[in-house]
Amino acid sequence: MYVSQVGSKSENNEKNEQNDQNDQDAPSEKKGKKYIPFLSAKQELKRKQEEAQRKKEEILRRKKEKEEAIEKYKQKRKEKNIKLSQKTKKGQPKMQGRLEMLLEKIQSTMA
């Protein structure tokens, strides 16, 4: 009996060692249930980070477009103000700039 018990203990030890090696080689097989939530959480985090990055880029793009539109408007307004504020030597307003603006306005409505 003693010999058979020793033999069975060594067989059990070998099986345990093989199981340990299998656990180390393929952790997703035996512990798959533990890794699936971790991986899904990791993927979710990555997706949220990408979404936040896209939102940030979109906000920056809109801000840049808005700044460009404001700058364009200010430039146009400045040119208009220069044309309207031209005066002669005696202080009378020059009509040339006003007529040019009226002509541009009429042409834009016709087009």
Automatic annotation (TrEMBL):
Signal sequence annotation: none
Top-level division of the source organism's lineage: Eukaryota
Ranges of Basic and acidic residues composition bias in the record: 43-57
Name recorded for this polypeptide: rRNA-processing protein FYV7
Annotated Polar residues bias: 1-10
PANTHER family, alphabetized: THYROID TRANSCRIPTION FACTOR 1-ASSOCIATED PROTEIN 26
A Pfam family that the UniProt record links to this protein: rRNA_processing
Region feature Disordered, mapped onto this chain: 1-57, 78-97
GO cellular component term of the entry, any: nucleus
Organism ancestry: Eukaryota, Metazoa, Ecdysozoa, Arthropoda, Hexapoda
Biased composition (Basic residues): 78-92
